[in-house]
Amino acid sequence: MVTAFKDEPITNHFLDHNSQQQNEQILQINHLEIFYGEKRAVNGITLDIEKNAVTALIGPSGCGKSTFLRSINRMNDLIPGARAKGEIIYEDLNILSEDINVVALRKEIGMVFQKPNPFPKSIYENITHALKFAGIKKKSELDVIVEESLQKAALWDEVKDRLHKSALSLSGGQQQRLCIARTIAMKPTVMLLDEPSSALDPISNAKVEDLIVDLKKDYSIIIVTHNMQQASRISDKTAFFLSGDLIEYDATEKIFTNPSVKKTEEYISGRFG
Ligand SMILES: Nc1ncnc2c1ncn2[C@@H]1O[C@H](COP(=O)(O)OP(=O)(O)O)[C@@H](O)[C@H]1O
Ligand SMILES: [Mg+2]
After folding, report:
1. CATH number of the domain that 262 lies in?
2. What are the tens digits of pLDDT across the range 24-79?
3. How many CB atoms are closer than 10 A to CB 14?
4. What is the predicted pLDDT for the residue at 9?
5. Could you identify the atom of ligand 1 that is nearest to the CA of residue 67?
6. How far is it, in rounded angstroms, from Cα 257 to Cα 28?
7. Closest ligand 1 atom, CA of 61?
8. Phi, psi for residue 90 in degrees, rounded to 5
9. Does ligand 1 have an atom closer than 6 angstroms to the CB of 237?
10. Is residue 260 one of the residues assigned to a domain?
């Protein structure tokens, strides 16, 4: 009886594996330092980002949240004098290596900015622009991706009858969901959102928040927010930054109900920042 099973893994192995899968990591950040010229804006940060979760980055203005976020898809490369040290490991590669193809990287790790920035083109073209550039030219194929992306961004029903109207005719909240749809169309694995709803009215903000929670089924999301309620509503993990340091990183509920570090408690209770 026993020998019949000798080549099979023991049951416990599967159990362990499954329980760990919930906390699978998509990014491992090791001793990340980021400089603008001589000035260091991120002071050697180490943290793992969970797959299919929403990770919120909080902290007062100027503490390095955007700098940190931009390093993950190498957007800081566009800033003269900016440089990074350390490692950001994604699929066994260090994103910071010189030989990384940043165009390919930015498809897998997409970014949405604070101010909605659709191109002054039609809704349809906003989504297909980068796809055409990537070599997808067949209309039938593009049509499918446009619909899928807009569906996932919870915008399809609002725009399906006016896909060829200007994106600039949309409201701010719709424009931001279009920018999210544009990112989704590239089939990313990670989405970086830098205060994506801070320029929106409360109703649009609520829609974008619902969307983010929904999207984590398919993507790993890192969101910068200065809005503490937003972080506590939508994120699974929260990282608190202060002056370029990572002060505390834990489950969002823990950070907001029982933080381990006094500075975190002072910040979330509104005593500074
Ligand atoms: N393009 C830049 N050139 C020089 N310094 C910058 C640049 N962007 C940000 N910084 C500096 O880096 C620090 C962190 O900024 P930032 O990442 O924008 O913070 P946050 O997003 O938390 O408000 C600040 O001191 C800021 O002045
Ligand atoms: Mg910022």
Report:
1. 3.40.50.300
2. 999 999 999 999 999 999 999 999 999 999 999 999 999 999 999 999 999 999 99
3. 10
4. 45
5. 17
6. 26
7. 23
8. -135, 120
9. no
10. yes
Atom 20 of ligand 1 has which residue's CA nearest to it?
Answer: 62
Residue 192 pairs in a beta bridge with: 111, 222
Query: Which residue's alpha carbon is nearest to atom 21 within ligand 1?
Result: 66
Ligand 1 atom with minimal separation from the 63 CA: 22
Domain range spanning residue 54? 45-94+102-268
> Ligand 2 centroid to 5 CA: how many Å?
56
Say if 23 falls within a structural domain. Answer: no
- Whether 225 is in the pocket of ligand 1, judged by its Cβ within 6 Å, is no
Give 117 or 134, the one with higher predicted confidence.
117
State if residue 63 touches ligand 1 by the CB under 6 angstroms criterion: yes
133 inside domain: yes
How many Å apart are CA 222 and CA 64, to the nearest integer?
Answer: 14
Q: Does residue 11 lie within any of the structural domains?
A: no
Residues with C-beta atoms within 5 A of ion ligand 2: 66
Question: Which residue in 260, 85, 120, 113 sits closest to 196, CA to CA?
Answer: 113
Please state the domain count of the chain: 1
User: What's the predicted TM-score (pTM) here?
Assistant: 0.90
